[in-house]
Amino acid sequence: MRGASSSDSIKKNLIKLIKNENGSVLPIVALSLPVILGLVGLGTDASLWMASKRNIQFSADAAVIAAGWELAQGTTDNMDAAAVREAQRNGYNPTADGRLEIEILAQDEEGARIAVTVSQSAETFFSKIIFQSDIRVSAYAEALISDVDGQFCILALEDEDDGALTTSGSVSISAPSCGIAVNSSDDEALQLSGNVEVEVSNVRVSGDYDINGCSADFTYDSLKTGQSPLSDPYDDLEVPEFEGCDFNNKKVTSSTTLSPGVYCGGIKISGNNDVTFEPGLYIINGGDFKVTGSGSMFGEGVTFILTGSGNDYSQLDISGGKDIEFSAPETGEDWSGITFFQDRDAPEGNNLQNKLTGTSDLTFNGVAYFPSQGLWFGGNSSSTGGQAPCTKLIARTVTFSGNPSLGNNCANYDVEDIGPPTVKLLR
Length: 427
Prior knowledge:
Blueprint: H1 2-19, H2 25-72, H3 79-89, E1 99-108, E2 111-121, E3 136-146, E4 152-156, E5 165-175, E6 179-182, E7 190-192, E8 195-200, E9 202-205, E10 209-211, E11 215-219, E12 222-224, E13 247-252, E14 256-258, E15 261-269, E16 272-277, E17 280-285, E18 289-291, E19 294-300, E20 302-309, E21 312-313, E22 316-318, E23 323-327, E24 338-342, E25 349-356, E26 362-377, E27 391-402, E28 422-425
Parallel strand pairs: 4-6, 4-27, 5-7, 5-8, 5-27, 6-9, 7-10, 8-11, 9-12, 13-15, 14-16, 15-17, 15-18, 16-19, 17-20, 18-22, 19-23, 20-24, 22-25, 23-26, 24-26, 25-26, 26-27
Antiparallel strand pairs: 1-2, 2-3, 3-28, 20-21
Helix pairs in contact: 2-3
């Protein structure tokens, strides 16, 4: 009996031992812990990947905008450097096997599209145990560079000297539909002196402006200093080819009609007379286009090209008391929108002044372009002509005097807009 009882006891204890669950959790946890930690680590790294993805997208957006602005200035020389610089400011890290690629997708008269792709290794911790290679994140951005908005009708091209745009004496400038742009980076790039009334829509100065000892009523919708210079919209326009001379040292002292052609030695008009210019292209090769006296001078659909060679380049000097009405060729015609164009090879100098002044009425529709020399615009000239005009002045320096009026209604002319381009992020 005692042997049977002992056997039953051993059997019962074995059954209890087999059924006992105490201590079984620990090996399960030990086996599961690497998996649990791996999942937590992957979740943490996934959050870091998403943050890296957002940052790299910010970098791509900033890079494509920077590259777009460089392209909008007409050059690709600094495009890569500008893109990398702005990308780094927004999280791009070239040392993390970073790559930045720029592609110009399209470039034509309507504008340009540019794309940037940025990629780099993502920052990870736990996933390095699972993945042998680096995790890379990348982003793509695209921008559209559009035409300028054309809000300016006065542009002083001088880029560093003071007084790039000035006023002289008692001046009243009326240009409520357009603005003034000055490319000089000098602290006194725009100088107002005398008894001045200026009414314009916008003022944009690369440097700063100075109101010097004058009574100034300076009215504008917006004024911005420290701005990037505006591009010369006619930088690629050249003097047309020509041969010989149709007229030499032309002098006019009585009423007459002049025909288009090549005028060597200039055109000089003086006295009390009425002079009409037939439509067309007037190339003045050497000598000056000088007008004094009284009477009238009329030209519709005319363009005056001031050129020359050596030290003998034609300059414009219109003063006196004539009633003058000039308008450029209209849309679809040769040299549409250009009334005066001086050869960019003319001697440079801020003191070399072309004058479009006078003591009577000046009706002037078109562009006056003097890229290497100054333009003095004023007197009692008025470019209104009974209607909202198209008057654009582009010169190395611009000086205003008297009571000039300007407008920006250029629907009838193929004139180039003056203003900053627009760079828009597409995606």
